[in-house]
Every structure is written in structure tokens, then in C-alpha cells.
Specification:
The complex is a heterodimer of chains A (about 425) and B (about 475). Chain A is α/β, with parallel strands linked by helices and about 425 residues long. Chain A is built from 11 helices and 25 strands. In chain A, the strands form 7 sheets. Chain A has a 5-stranded parallel beta sheet with strand order 3-2-1-7-19. In chain A, strands 9-16-10-11-12 form a 5-stranded parallel beta sheet, covered by helices on one side. In chain A, strands 21-22-25-24-23 form a 5-stranded antiparallel beta sheet. In chain A, helix 5 links the parallel strand 10 and strand 11. The chains are: A alpha/beta (about 425), B mainly alpha (about 475).
Chain lengths: ~425, ~475
């Protein structure tokens, strides 16, 4: 009998794990999902709503891929894991026995107990069911309100805007994402949001959603009442740990795992958004909820599941996003406020920005931010990992350029700025 | 109620302004002008119907594009899959029937175009010193489409310099090399010649019949033959080595020019499946073999003065001209834009693309570089690839894209929301980089020997790249 590896969740973590397990072993693989029959790119949800793509375009693999690679797909909702007998219970379905189990159950949108938060027309945006609801509740409406100044919030604002729906965007902070972005970056995004006719309200929180049968208005912390028929709650996500809790697997914020993604129960692993490392220093934080980390978790845990255990290493941090038309990339460590001893070189242009942080004493580059520019990941990574000196980086910035051909180069500006500084 | 909500039915992508509506009315007037012309008005007042129709069409388009330019620059594909015209809805099928019908009439029933041809007489006299025929009319409409829709491209992609330059280039080559210059040549009693088309796309340029026609005609005819041979044999491989096939397919070629301008609203309709790719490879290389054999037979026959092959080469050339030259490149190539995307001909039929593709794959510095592990698998790149390449397949593995069919339009890089893709001409070393996905160094293990024996490692899908398998095993 082949070993049976069962994966709960067909998001990027579960599917990456399945793919690498298939590359590394002949085990039987089953991926269970209650959301969709096939893996789709969650990152593309917004594009479906905006009409750039249909659901089928968001599927990274053709449907025949799974049978061709011997990866079994099961559509169903796992209610409980009997870890003693090593079987899964599926709602209205058969029991499934496993030898090894990977929980990759992802996240859930957070809600903070606001009055009216469960009214129809009030929702987060995490998966296909949310998209279906959003489609239904944004038909012929006069205004949508988006609550929460994170990456999903700005996506939701763009989605509604693309459909010609006026948007009010409530952001708790004094400037968009100023807890992560340095001031210049944050302000540039504020301007970009406003440039697209979004009613951006900074330092404003949600107090309550009003309505009887569905959302009709929101009340803000500044006392304003905004008439709207749709409220997008994008105040963050939290690990989806219901299944683990129901099955006696140790959890805190997420499902507790070590650097090999082992949970408190033998032969049960957890990875991706739903996992929480049991100590600092494994990932960039205890709970990592990015597309890139989900993929990296999935790949790493696959080796462990195939009997070649290796600890998770995040490597040089990187992330990316797009705020309306402005692309954003970040490498290494670029905090909102540079700590003492960290210098920063920042060049800006028309909706473009390049920031290089460096250690004042050693001159080593510690982090890079770009807005409206594209950089090469491998070059940036090598700089940060190899401790490249700021003067070298400033003079060789073109080596990292990844902009479209013929785009004007930023390099001279950087060099001039560096020589002046 | 939102004041725009009722109009959202027309343009799901956003508010529909009065200006756009006005532009639409002018465009409709222009098209109506052509219709009225076709049913008789053209012969009565050709100069008036021509200038009114073209004027209204141009002015209306300008209004619509001006409105587009008011919005912040950036990729805007909002609502493309919601609009019937661009998502194979009723309007799309009607468009396909109209386009296809136009080609059928043009090729086989030109008498029905008589009034439209007469409408273009004034322009033809001006440009060529002779009355118009159906091919002049066709060239006129073709050029008009490239220019107007080219202007739309310039507005839509105004923040992307590669797209802007490329669009200006195809507009220039269509207007200058494929419309004005051939007309001027006729005015000066020279053979009509398109300096921007070469064998095997313009297959008869190297057929014995045309060659002798050119050389008999004038000394310039000799140069034309020389030009054709030199472009096919010398210039094409050199330029393709340095820049990839894009130097021709998306910067110069007229077929490509129409696809990149008038075809832009339909680019996402190309089939991305592995199945389509399999068909494509057989078909496009099959056509290349066909045209090569036909050309060879014609020359053998010509050398032997018809003594052995008799009518065989003639049969080949007529068959090729009918099925490939007319039906495939014209009727299907353009007629199917709203159904199969803008590059049906280029992808499945063009023998020039086949040659350029082979050169591009094996003897070229061109590649689309993938930016490490930045891909979020969203699928915009694959969706908007007019050649039906599943770009995401490579991008999400962190692998460079080196595909024979890629025409280098650069749209995958333009629509990518994470800056993952870049068109580059680099050194041949490291061109095939193999998959990276996340990091090279974090994992390097040996695969179970028995597993390796049991089944292929990664799906044979996209097996075009032989380098995949062994790289995959060892990292």
C-alpha cells in the first residue's frame, strides 16, 4: 500500500505541497477543498470582479493536470479529524483515512464585533463565496464603503471603482498603511487613491453598520453617517483554525507548528496562513499570511512529508502589491520608521519612488522599497544577503532594473542624490 | 440610485460619459456612411461620401479616445469579459460574421463592393494616378483600421513606452510601406511592391513567375527581387538573432499591425490550452512545409520548363494561394478575431512566423525574463497573450519564457501587476534558466530512485522545453 498523504485546503500552500510531494515521492495524494473543485489563484479574485478575467482564467493548471499527475481532488468540508484512528470526517461524505495529514486551511476575514456587521451586504473578501456575494450586493448601488487600510482594502476600493461605483474608504491610520510604509510611500499611495476619485477618509474608523434587511449606511468614528448599500470589511484576516480546534490539535492564534510544520499531534502538519510558529525567528513573524509565504511553506513541508525533513527558512524578505496603477515591491527590512543607525536614500519621481536603507556604520544595504518601478529580485536579494555597500548599490542601481524596455532609467537620479548626500 | 447605474449596462467598465456617447454617434454615422455608400451613394458623390464617412469615423474615435485619456493612465481591461463584443457574446459573433462576410465578398464577389470602390476613386487617383479596384479599397480600409485603432492603443498604453513605440512603428509601416509606397510605385509605372512583406508570408515574391515579372518590368524590379531575397535569407536571421521575432511580427508586419491595433480588444480570446498548442505546432509548421515544397516545385518546374512536373507545381501553387493565402490568412485570420483572438493566422498559419519562431527559439538572444519568485499566479499574462502562450506556467516557476510563437508584443509584462516579466535581449548563456520558484539554495535533494523510474516528474504539459526535466529532479 502506498502511503496516503491528505491535504486539507486547495489554496497555494496545499497545492504547492501536493505538487512537490508528487515530484518527490510516489505517495497517494488527496487534496480536499470545500471551496472549489480546482485550485485557483486567490490573488486574482479582484480581476474576476473587474472583468479582466473569468474564473477559469484564474486556474493556474488545466483541469487534466491533476489526474495526469495522480493528485486526487475531493470536494467536501472536513468537519473533524480523528487523530487517534487517523481518519477525516467529511460532511455528507465518506471517511478518509490518512497516513500523513497537512492542514492548509488558510485564513478567515476578521470582524470586530461592530453593530450590524452580519447584515447582508457586509462582508470581507477572501474566496469565491465572498466574490459571489459581492457580485450580488453591489448590483445597482449608489455607494460602497470599504473599511480597513490594508492591501485587500485598496483592492476592494479598486474593484468597486472599476464598476463605476462611488467608494468611501475608511482608514484607521493617519496615512494609508503608515504602520508598514515610510511616510513618503504612504503619502504617495494616499494621493494615488484620491486620484481615482475614492473618498479616502484617514484617521476614521467604523462604529456601526445601519440597516434592517441589508446594509443601508455606516456610522464612522468621526460621527458621520454615510449612506451606502455595501460595506467591505478588510481589517485583516486570522488563521482558520476551527478544524484544528475541533480535532484537539494545539492552537494559539494559528495552528501551532515548529519549523518543520509539525503540529502537536504526530503525522499532522499545518502550513500556510493557518499555521503559527511556536517561536520567533523561524519566519519573518509567527503567522505569515502572504501568497509567497504560503507557497514557500507548501514547498518546504512537502520535503518533510516525503521523509526528507528540512527546516523552514524565509530567506530575504520580499513582498509586492499594486495600489491602483502603482506597483510596489519591497526587499529586506524597510520599517515605517528607520531605527537609529539606519540611513535611508530615497529618490522620488512622478508616482515613482526608490528607497534604499543601509546601516550607517558599515554601509551595508538592509532593505529596498520601490513604487512604480520594477527591480530584479535576485539582484536585490544578493545585495542584501551579501551585505553590499550603499555606495556600490547606488552606482549600480541599473543592474537591478526590471522596468519595461525604453522606460527612462532612474539610475542617474540615484547617483546624483548619492553624491550630494 | 446611482445616476450611472442604468448606463453601466452599456459599459460595465465604468461611467459612460456624454462625450463618449457623442463619439459613439459620430462613429455610427461614419459606419453608416460606408453602408449607404455601399448601396449606391458611392458612385454619385464619391469625394463627399468618402470624406464625410472617414471624417465622422475619425472624429468620433478621437472623442472616445480623448475621454479615455482623461482617466489615469494604466492598464485598464475593466469589463472586457462582460461585454458581448469582446467576450464572444452575440455582438462578438455578429462582428465575426461581418468581418468574415467582408472577406468573402472581397475575394469572390467584388461586384458587390462596386460602389465602395468608386467611393475610394478620388483617393486612388490622388495616390496612384489610376482608378481604384477592390484591392485598393481593401488596403484603404486596412490602413484606416490600423491608424484609428492604433491611436486607441497609443492612448490605452500611454504610460508604457514599449507599447507606444511599437504601435507607432506598425502604424508607420502600414501607412508608408504597405499603402502609400505601393501606390506611388504604380503611379510611376513600377511593379506594385510591398517592401515590408517577404517570402514566405508574401509567398509569390520568390516564385519564378513573380520574379520574372519584376525583373522584366524595370531596373527597380531587379532591386525588388534582390530586396526580397536579402530580407528573407540575410536580414531576417540577423535581426531575429538580436531582437527575437518581434522585430517583424509586432513592429513591422501588416498582419501583425492589424492584430496589434484592431485586434487588441480581442487578444484575450486566444486558446491557452495545451491542446491548442499541439494543434498550433503541427499546423504552422505544416504550412511552412507546404509553402517551401510549393516554391521548390515551381522553381524545379521552371528550370525544367515544365517538361517533367507538368501541371503539378501549378496545382500546388493554386491550392496554396486559395487555401492559405485567401481563406486562412484573410477570411479566418481576420474574420475570427472576435472568436479566436487576434492572432489566429499568425499563430496557426503564418509560415513567416514559423521560420522566425524556429530562429527565435534556437538562434536568438530574446527571452522574457521572469523575476525570481514574484509571481502570484493571477493569470493576467496568460489571459492577455494573443498567441495563446500560457505565460503563467513559466512565470510561477520562475522560469524564462522562450517560445517559438512569442511575437514579443510585451503585453504580458504590461498587464502583470507584480513586475514579474520583462522582454530582454541578453546573452545566450543562461537563457534557459530552469525553474527557480523560490530560491535555488533552500532545497537541493536527490529524488527517490524508484520514484524516478515509475513516472515522469512533472507533467509532460508544455514539454517544449527539454531542459525542464533534469533541472526539476535535482533541485
Amino acid at each position: 500500500m502506498k502511503r496516503h498523504i491528505v491535504i486539507v485546503g486547495n489554496g497555494v500552500t496545499g497545492v504547492t505541497a501536493a505538487r512537490f510531494i508528487r515530484k518527490l515521492s510516489a505517495s497517494q495524494i488527496t487534496v480536499i477543498s470545500s471551496e472549489t473543485d480546482h485550485f485557483y489563484a486567490r490573488t486574482a479574485l479582484m480581476y474576476i470582479y473587474m472583468g479582466h478575467m473569468r474564473y477559469r482564467e484564474t486556474k493556474p493548471y488545466e483541469d487534466h493536470f491533476w489526474t495526469q499527475n495522480g493528485i486526487g481532488l475531493v470536494r467536501g468540508y472536513v468537519t473533524h479529524v480523528d487523530t487517534a484512528r487517523k481518519v477525516l470526517h467529511i460532511a455528507d461524505g465518506p471517511e478518509i483515512a490518512y497516513d500523513s495529514l497537512l492542514l492548509a486551511t488558510g485564513s478567515q476575514s476578521s470582524k470586530f464585533g461592530w453593530p450590524g456587521q452580519n447584515l447582508p451586504g457586509v462582508q470581507g473578501l477572501y474566496g469565491i463565496p465572498d466574490l459571489v456575494l459581492m457580485e450580488r450586493y453591489t448590483r445597482n448601488i449608489s455607494r460602497g464603503v470599504v473599511v480597513g487600510g490594508g492591501l485587500i482594502g485598496v483592492e476592494m476600493a479598486e474593484m468597486l471603482h472599476a464598476r463605476g461605483i462611488p467608494v468611501t474608504f475608511l482608514v484607521r491610520e493617519d496615512s494609508y498603511m503608515d504602520y508598514l510604509l515610510p511616510q513618503k510611500e504612504s503619502r504617495m499611495i494616499n494621493e494615488e487613491i484620491c486620484r481615482h476619485d475614492i473618498d479616502l477618509r484617514l484617521a476614521t474608523e467604523l462604529k456601526a453598520v445601519k440597516g434592517t434587511t441589508r446594509a443601508e449606511a455606516v456610522v464612522t468614528s468621526t460621527g458621520d453617517e454615510i449612506v451606502c448599500q455595501f460595506v467591505g470589511l478588510t481589517v485583516g484576516v486570522h488563521p482558520n483554525i476551527g478544524l484544528a480546534q475541533a480535532s484537539g490539535i494545539a492552537t494559539r492564534r494559528g495552528i501551532l507548528v515548529n519549523e518543520y510544520f509539525e503540529t502537536s499531534v504526530p503525522d499532522v502538519y499545518a502550513a500556510g496562513d493557518c499555521a503559527e510558529f511556536n517561536r520567533d525567528g523561524i519566519g519573518s513573524r509567527r503567522v505569515e499570511q502572504l501568497w509567497y509565504t504560503g507557497r514557500a511553506h507548501g514547498k518546504t513541508v512537502a520535503f518533510t512529508l516525503c521523509g526528507m525533513p528540512r527546516p523552514y527558512r524565509r530567506g530575504v524578505f520580499f513582498n509586492s502589491a499594486k495600489f491602483f496603477t502603482i506597483e510596489y515591491q519591497t526587499y529586506g527590512d524597510v520599517p515605517a520608521e528607520p531605527p537609529g543607525g539606519i540611513g535611508t536614500l530615497c529618490v522620488t519621481g512622478n508616482r515613482k519612488l526608490l528607497r534604499i536603507n543601509f546601516d550607517r556604520q558599515s554601509g551595508r544595504v538592509t532593505g529596498i522599497n520601490v513604487l512604480g518601478l520594477r527591480l530584479r529580485q535576485d539582484v536585490c536579494e544578493a545585495w542584501i544577503q551579501g551585505g553590499a555597500k550603499i555606495e556600490d548599490v547606488a552606482h549600480q542601481v541599473n543592474r537591478a532594473r526590471f522596468d519595461t524596455e525604453f522606460d527612462p532609467s532612474f539610475a542617474r537620479k540615484v547617483q546624483r542624490m548619492f553624491t550630494q548626500a | 440610485m446611482n445616476k450611472n447605474s442604468s448606463l453601466q449596462l452599456i459599459v460595465p467598465g465604468g461611467p459612460f460619459s456624454r462625450l463618449q456617447l457623442l463619439g459613439g454617434i459620430f462613429i455610427a454615422v461614419g459606419l453608416l456612411g460606408f453602408l449607404v455608400t455601399a448601396f449606391g451613394a458611392g458612385s454619385v458623390l464619391p469625394a463627399v461620401t468618402l470624406s464625410v464617412s472617414v471624417g465622422a469615423l475619425t472624429f468620433g474615435s478621437a472623442l472616445v479616445f480623448w475621454r479615455m485619456a482623461q482617466k489615469p493612465a494604466g492598464v485598464d481591461n475593466n469589463g472586457i469579459w462582460f461585454s458581448g463584443a469582446t467576450a464572444r457574446g452575440m455582438a462578438g459573433w455578429i462582428l465575426a460574421i461581418v468581418f468574415t462576410g467582408f472577406y468573402v465578398v472581397l475575394y469572390w464577389m467584388p461586384q458587390y463592393l462596386e460602389h465602395l470602390i468608386r467611393m475610394s476613386d478620388p483617393l486612388s487617383w490622388l495616390m496612384r494616378g489610376e482608378a481604384a479596384d477592390q484591392w485598393f479599397l481593401y488596403g484603404f480600409f486596412y490602413t484606416l483600421a490600423v491608424l484609428i485603432m492604433g491611436a486607441r492603443m497609443l492612448v490605452k498604453y500611454r504610460d508604457n513606452r514599449y507599447q507606444v513605440l511599437r504601435t507607432i512603428s506598425v502604424m508607420f509601416f502600414q501607412l508608408g510601406f504597405a499603402f502609400i509606397l505601393p501606390g506611388l510605385l504604380r503611379m510611376f509605372n513600377q511593379p506594385e511592391f510591398y517592401f515590408s512583406y517577404f517570402w514566405p508570408l508574401k509567398y509569390d515574391y520568390l516564385w519564378p513567375g513573380s520574379v520574372s515579372n519584376f525583373t522584366d518590368a524595370s531596373r527597380l524590379g531587379f532591386f525588388m527581387v534582390f530586396w526580397g531575397v536579402a530580407m528573407t535569407i540575410i536580414v531576417t536571421p540577423i535581426l531575429t538573432y538580436f531582437f527575437g521575432k518581434r522585430w517583424y511580427c509586432s513592429w513591422v508586419c501588416g498582419c501583425g499591425g492589424l492584430a496589434e491595433t484592431a485586434g487588441d480588444p480581442f487578444r484575450h480570446l486566444s486558446d491557452k490550452s495545451l491542446f491548442a498548442w499541439k494543434i498550433e505546432r503541427w499546423m504552422v509548421h505544416g504550412v511552412l512545409v507546404f509553402v517551401t515544397v510549393t516554391t521548390g516545385l515551381l522553381w524545379v518546374n521552371s528550370a525544367l520548363e515544365g517538361s517533367i512536373l507538368g501541371g503539378l507545381s501549378q496545382t500546388f501553387s493554386v491550392t496554396y494561394g486559395f487555401f492559405i493565402g485567401l481563406i486562412f490568412s484573410g477570411v479566418i485570420g481576420v474574420g475570427f478575431y472576435p472568436i479566436m483572438g487576434s492572432r489566429v493566422w499568425c499563430r496557426f498559419g503564418c509560415p513567416m512566423a514559423a521560420i522566425l519562431g524556429l530562429l527565435q527559439k534556437y538562434f536568438s538572444r530574446f527571452r522574457i525574463t521572469t523575476n525570481g519568485g514574484q509571481c502570484i499566479s493571477c493569470g493576467n499574462c496568460s489571459t492577455y497573450c494573443e498567441m495563446g502562450i500560457d505565460v503563467r506556467w513559466y512565470a510561477q516557476r520562475g522560469q524564462n519564457i522562450i517560445r517559438a510563437s512569442c511575437v514579443g508584443c510585451g503585453m504580458c509584462a504590461a498587464v502583470c501587476p507584480r513586475g514579474v516579466l520583462r522582454l530582454e535581449n541578453g546573452s545566450m548563456a543562461g537563457r534557459y534558466n530552469g525553474p527557480v520558484l523560490i530560491h535555488h539554495d533552500d532545497v537541493s535533494v536527490q529524488v527517490d530512485a524508484d520514484w524516478k523510474a515509475q513516472r515522469p516528474l512533472m507533467p509532460p504539459a508544455q514539454e517544449d522545453l527539454p531542459i525542464l526535466t533534469d533541472r526539476d529532479v535535482t533541485w
